[in-house]
Write a structure and sequence with these properties.
The protein is mainly alpha-helical. The protein is 73% helix and 0% strand. It has a domain at 27-79. The protein is built from three helices and no strands. The termini are far apart.
């Protein structure tokens, strides 16, 4: 090999190394790809959480539309409602006697 070939091969290898490093760290290089994958992973997890919440809401909506026992329990616990034939007993507020 002549001296020109050696210089040409050395410059070619150097150029390839520079292009490789540039491709790693440029604006849309490998580091950008890693960040995009991390964001995608977070979005997928958020999406799965929202899908679980949506399913829970669909089940509750279905129960509110079709389950009279569930509707009654909601009315009793959250709204304090009672049936017509029920009697509400409230304790008197009597002061404790101290002797």
């Amino acid at each position: 090999m002549t001296n020109k070939h050696t210089v040409f091969i050395s410059l070619s290898i150097l150029l390839l190394m520079v292009l490789f490093v540039y491709s790693l760290f440029r604006e849309y290089g490998y580091s950008h790809l890693l960040n995009a994958r991390l964001k995608l992973s977070g979005i997928i997890q958020t999406n799965a959480q929202i899908a679980r919440e949506n399913h829970k809401f669909r089940v509750e909506i279905d129960r509110l539309k079709h389950d009279p026992v569930y509707i009654e329990s909601i009315a009793r616990h959250e709204l304090g409602m009672v049936r017509k034939d029920e009697l509400i007993l409230k304790p008197r507020n009597t002061p404790h006697s101290t002797k």
